[in-house]
Amino acid sequence: MDILIEQEIALHQYEIRQSKADIAQLIHGDFREVGESGISYDHQSIIEMMASEQPSNGFIHSQDYECIQLEESVQLLLYKSASVDELGKSSHFAKRSSVWVLNGTQWQLKYHQGTACEPFELSN
């Protein structure tokens, strides 16, 4: 589970999201997402969305990770997240689910969904 958490957190980082090599390694070619907003993305549209992002002094906080094995090479990662701005204010609280598949020797994100939720206390 640790590698999946590390990779999930990596995908929250602006520098990783701007790296075509990192994205090609971490995101499956058949990727799909239903965002917190309800907007659906496919592989191409998520790549375009990440490429258009601007750097920020804020960050994505994530916590309460749980991993459920669906098959030996398919894992469901559940967690909660919030956006934290440069002043420390939290917003965009969401419950998240990611389906990771083992593609050869590399875990890749194949499906992701974010669902808005009530604010929660951020843990370390």
From TrEMBL:
Identify the domain of life.
Bacteria
- By what name is this protein known? DUF4440 domain-containing protein
Query: Where in this chain does the record put each DUF4440 domain?
Result: 5-109
Q: Which InterPro entries match?
A: DUF4440, NTF2-like_dom_sf
Recorded hits in Pfam families, A to Z, give: DUF4440
Q: Which Gene3D superfamilies match?
A: 3.10.450.50
